[in-house]
TrEMBL record, chain A:
Domain of life: Bacteria
Listed GO CC annotations: plasma membrane
Residues annotated as domain ABC transmembrane type-2: 146-371
Keywords: Cell membrane, Membrane, Transmembrane, Transmembrane helix, Transport
Family matches, as InterPro entries: ABC-2_transporter_component, ABC2_TM, ABC2_TM_bact-type
PROSITE patterns: ABC_TM2 (PS51012)
Positions of transmembrane segments: 21-42, 176-196, 228-252, 258-279, 291-310, 350-368
Protein name: ABC transporter permease
Lineage: Bacteria, Pseudomonadati, Bacteroidota, Bacteroidia, Marinilabiliales
Single GO MF descriptor: ABC-type transporter activity
TrEMBL record, chain B:
Family under the similarity heading: Belongs to the ABC-2 integral membrane protein family.
Principal location class: membrane
One MF annotation (Gene Ontology) recorded for this entry: ABC-type transporter activity
Name of the protein this chain belongs to: Multidrug ABC transporter permease
Species for this entry: Labilibaculum antarcticum
Transmembrane segments: 21-40, 171-196, 225-244, 250-273, 285-305, 340-360
This protein's UniProt keywords: Cell membrane, Membrane, Transmembrane, Transmembrane helix, Transport
Topology versus the membrane: Multi-pass membrane protein
Compartments (UniProt record): Cell membrane
Cross-referenced Pfam families: ABC2_membrane_3
PROSITE patterns: ABC_TM2
Matching InterPro entries: ABC-2_transporter_component (IPR051449), ABC2_TM (IPR013525), ABC2_TM_bact-type (IPR047817)
A cellular component term, taken from the record's GO annotations: plasma membrane
């Protein structure tokens, strides 16, 4: 036990003596959390519209003002030529074009075939789908507006209609930050722990200091514990700081228990640190360790449900994800914070993470050889 | 010159002899593209749905069938009361609950209006939004179906045409993004760490007292990575084209020239990072941490820049991959020529010169 204490002292000293690492460990993640949470949004705010109004009737003008009044759209330009509008789409200045043909207003008045043409800039597929849906819903609204004129004719009431109302639970204002920030926090904690632990033992190998430790009577497990505990402490600290910022600076609700988050974080960080250690024992240079860590990191990250929903993945992708620790922690932290899920709600995921933690650490310890 | 070639050879051997790193550096783009091409998508599929059917008549049953057979939703639970909703959501799998009012079918036929309430788990706002949109689409079709034969009230129709990506394939967006991410990180990370490594191990001093001048040392260090990154760029474009059908409508030569320019920029960032960091660890954390997330989040790769708050839109301008992604999309998907991307190209060139200048300044100071 005393040996472990001294070893830990040494490791902590090493970390805190390294003046250029400190800001990277403590400032950069928090800074990124604060900045990037705002950026990670699918929120539709400034959809730029170009309107080609060849009609100039009261109907087309009414519809245009409806778009102008909607918070999602900005009517950037009104013109008469589709060619000009198309050029703007090519320059990426415009997200969608609405085209009113000459006889649009007349057709509306006469109740014959009236149509609006929508040209969407689909360079970004997911936004394009949304642009289209939102534009259609504005036009649908307008259809409702002009209906009363025809209701008098007695056509409307015979129709049987399924009406829908909806209510968004847990996040009625549909804000993105409460959704993204906990996920980003998981990511930042992961990056720190994975990379620091992956590069740690191999660094001693590369510089040659590991030989000195290997000839001492220190036990393998003591040595490795001393390597892992400081990073666990750093991870806990970052998580706490991130949660404080989330709750006090961003006003994200924390409906569940902080202790539960920490319990999960403990198991999760054990998994990640074990994995990092495993990488470290299996590589010869820090460079190799870094590449391997990066390789897994990027895959874990992009498949982890942080940016795109796991449910939309094909079945084999979802199966692959059952091995992805990041996916579990992101899911759990969102559940606990935003929905107030309790211990029994997350038990399955927690148990799986527990199995991961035990296996990665066991494998890492076994693979570590004192004698090279 | 001979000496330089010798040094260059040594660097090439050094990198290409390390089989494990090679495997990762070439294997990574392949694995990533395969995964992202097939796995990542923002479309809805098999969203787990629970139903609370107070009515249980033929109409509600028919609607549930219609919704589940669409492929977007799958029914996993039947609830008995609305009190269960919260608990179901808290368990996490069910994202959506449909509530049919009592006497739904009767109301639909007699009073011509049947009500369905949709409850979503909006802790994921994007999915919740999509769910409502998809459901309303399905129900609108249902409305048309049950009213078929009757004269429909007049309504303005819409005709949509999608530019550049008519099937709305997510992979069209991911290929340019992944390309920027991989080229950026592989080039910057590798150079920064490889120079920092010489410093950390003390071999840099030996290099500096050799008759090679600093410029030759740097060139010798970065050339192998330039070659490597360029091969990666070819692999990514090739896989995008042959496996996922991402078009290259514009000039292939221009595309490759822009790739080389971007690789140069990334390499010069790597050199700059290595001049300011004392150890591999610092170099790695700076390049990895400083570049990875901003490249993914702030470059327009996944999140449209236009939706970000204004200060972040301003910041995104200093993120080099932003400009590269615009160039890639312009050349590949829109098929436009240099006259549409010269501005972005110029920005990349200025950034490259800036980083080279900064590194030279730092490098000289360090030599004294």
């Amino acid at each position: 036990m005393r040996i472990l204490k001294y070893l830990l002292q040494k490791e902590f000293l090493q970390i805190f003596r390294n003046k250029s690492m400190l800001p990277i460990i403590f400032v950069m993640p928090i800074l990124q959390l604060c900045v990037l949470s705002f950026a990670a949004t699918y929120d539709m705010k400034n959809t730029n519209l170009y309107v080609v109004d060849k009609d100039l009737s009261s109907h087309s003008r009414e519809l245009i003002s409806k778009f102008n009044g909607s918070p999602f759209f900005t009517v950037k330009e009104i013109g008469f030529s589709e060619k000009e509008a198309e050029k703007e789409i090519f320059r990426d200045n415009i997200d969608a074009i609405l085209v009113f043909n000459k006889d649009f207003g007349k057709s509306v008045d006469l109740k014959t075939q009236a149509s609006v043409q929508i040209l969407v800039n689909a360079i970004n597929a997911s936004s394009a789908g949304l642009y289209n849906a939102y534009i259609n819903s504005v036009i649908l609204d307008y259809n409702e507006d002009i209906k009363p004129n025809f209701a008098k004719l007695g056509q409307d009431n015979q129709h049987n209609i399924v009406k829908t109302t909806y209510s968004h639970q847990f996040n009625p204002e549909m804000k993105y930050i409460p959704y993204m920030l906990p996920g980003l926090l998981v990511l930042l904690v992961t990056v720190i722990s994975l990379f620091l632990s992956a590069m740690n033992v191999v660094r001693e190998k590369e510089i040659g200091t590991i030989e000195q430790i290997n000839v001492t009577p220190i036990k393998k497990s003591q040595f490795l514990m001393a390597k892992l505990i400081p990073f666990l402490v750093i991870g806990f600290f970052e998580l706490g700081l991130g949660l404080l910022i989330a709750v006090f600076a961003f006003n994200i609700p924390l409906l569940g228990s902080v202790w539960l988050i920490y319990l999960v974080a403990f198991v999760y960080l054990a998994t990640i640190l074990g994995f990092g250690l495993l990488i470290s024992t299996q590589t010869d240079t820090q460079q190799q360790a870094m590449f391997i860590a990066w390789f897994f990191m990027v895959i874990f990250l992009l498949m982890g449900g942080l940016f795109t929903p796991i449910e939309s993945m094909p079945e084999w992708g979802q199966k692959l994800n059952s091995l992805n620790p990041i996916a579990y922690f992101i899911k759990i932290i969102r559940m606990i914070m935003l929905k107030g899920s309790g211990f029994f709600d997350i038990l399955r995921e927690l148990a799986i993470l527990g199995i991961f933690a035990i296996s990665t650490i066991t494998i890492a310890v076994r693979m570590y050889r004192k004698v090279s | 010159m001979n000496r330089f070639i010798g040094f260059l050879k040594k660097e090439f051997y050094h990198i290409f002899r390390d089989k494990r790193s090679m495997l990762i550096l070439f294997g990574m783009p392949i694995v990533q593209i395969m995964l992202f091409g097939y796995v990542i998508s923002t479309d809805l599929k098999d969203v787990k749905m629970a139903v609370l059917d107070h009515s249980k008549d033929e109409y509600s049953t028919e609607i549930i069938n219609k919704i589940t057979s669409s492929g977007y939703f799958s029914l996993t639970e039947n609830l008995e009361s609305v009190e269960e909703a919260d608990a179901v959501f808290r368990k996490g799998d069910v994202k959506l609950i449909l509530v049919f009012e009592p006497d739904f079918g009767k109301n639909l036929i007699k009073n011509s209006k049947g009500n369905i309430q949709i409850l979503t788990d909006a802790s994921d706002p994007n999915t919740a939004n999509l769910e409502v949109n998809y459901l309303q689409g399905i129900l609108q079709n249902y409305n048309i179906k049950i009213n078929s034969g009757k004269k429909r009230p007049f309504s303005i129709q819409t005709k949509t045409r999608m530019y550049f990506n008519s099937n709305l394939e997510s992979v069209f967006m991911f290929i340019p993004g992944i390309m920027a991410t991989i080229l950026m990180l592989v080039s910057a990370m590798m150079t920064s760490i490889s120079i920092a490594r010489e410093k950390e191990l003390g071999t840099m001093e030996i290099l500096l007292v050799s008759p090679l001048n600093p410029l030759q040392i740097i060139l010798g260090k970065v050339t192998p990575y330039l070659v490597l990154s360029f091969i990666n760029a070819l692999v990514i474009v090739g896989m995008g084209y042959f496996i996922f059908g991402v078009p290259i409508l514009g000039s292939f030569a221009l595309l490759m020239a822009e790739c080389i320019l971007f690789i140069f920029l990334a390499l010069s960032i790597g050199i700059y990072i290595s001049t300011v960091s004392k150890s591999q660890q610092v170099a790695m954390m700076l390049s990895m941490f400083g570049l990875m997330l901003p490249t993914i989040i702030l470059s327009g790769f996944i999140f449209p820049i236009r939706n970000m708050p204004i200060p972040l839109q301003v910041i995104s301008n200093i993120i080099p991959p932003k400009w590269f992604i615009i160039i890639l999309k312009n050349i590949m998907l829109k098929g436009v020529g240099f006259e549409y991307v010269w501005k972005e190209t110029l920005i990349l060139i200025v950034m490259t010169m800036g980083f080279i200048g900064l590194s030279l300044k730092k490098f000289k100071i360090r030599l004294e």
